[in-house]
Design a protein that fits this description.
The protein is 39% helix and 10% strand. The protein is of the alpha+beta class and 210 residues long. Strand 2 and strand 3 form a beta hairpin. Pfam families: Amino_oxidase.
Amino acid sequence: MSELVAAPDKYVTEAFEPFKARLRANWMKGFQALMKYDQFSVRGYMMSHGITPLDDYYSIQWLETLTDGSGLYDQAFAEGVIDDLDFDYYTGAQKVDWYCIDGGTELLPIEMNKKLKMPLKTEDLGKRVTKISLIRDDPKTPEDDVYMTVKVDSEKEERKYMTVFATPTLACLQRIDLTGLELLYEQKDAIRSLHYDTATKVGMQFEYAW
């Protein structure tokens, strides 16, 4: 138990590193090997594969407390491995330059929009979408022509697009009418059940306990 307290990273490495090494060597083969364990959460994999000395809930909970964010061991094991690989893909002499966007990631889509041949206008932003549909066999269009329509609140006519990237949160996406998109059951279930990792940590210091 003393080693579990003193060197928690050792046990996380023992669980993740064999899969990370395969992914570095050959992404497709490594991913296929990882998918064999996709039924496990991180916690479930550790408890069933003898990762910690006790293999119990509390020791693995201790690892999560020291090495990761609260609740992240409940995510898929495959997600945990790939998440851990993000900043650990290149090893040895390979050098990686990391960059930070001064002003926040909000600037990324703004600058991308400027590169478009027909950039979005200010009046196109901040609209509320109520419905997205896939249109097949429209008699008004050439044969085999497939396109998508977007219904914007307060607009009478639906907008027509060849491709639509839906980027709202999944909670917001559930409030958009997607019945015309021919989504598979698995896609609908993912929209309903997936949740987000914590993206921001805020530290607050007080002069006295409150």
